[in-house]
Amino acid sequence: MGVISRGFGSRRRESDPHLPPGQYLTEDFPVLSAGPTPAIDTADWSFTIVNETGDRTSWSWADMMAMPIDDIGTDIHCVTRWSKLGTHWRGVSLDHFFEKVKTSDAYTMVHSYGGYTTNVPLEDLLDGKAWIAFEFEGEPLDPEHGGPARLLVPHLYFWKSAKWVNGIRMHSNDDPGFWEQNGYNIYGDPWKEQRYW
Amino acid sequence: MAIVSDWSTGTVSGGEKITPTGRILRLDVPSWPGNLPGQHLDLRLTADDGYQAVRSYSIASYGPGTTVELAVDELPDGEVSPYLVEDVQPGDQLEVRGPIGNYFVWREQQTEPVQLIAGGSGIVPLVSIVRAHQASSSAAPFRMIYSVRAPEDAYYAAELDSYSGDRFSLEWVYTRTTPAGWARPAGRIDRAVIEASALPASDDPTVYVCGPTGFVEAVARILVDLGHDPGRVKTERFGGA
Question: What is an example of a Pfam family matching this protein (chain A) (predicted)?
Answer without folding.
Answer: Oxidored_molyb
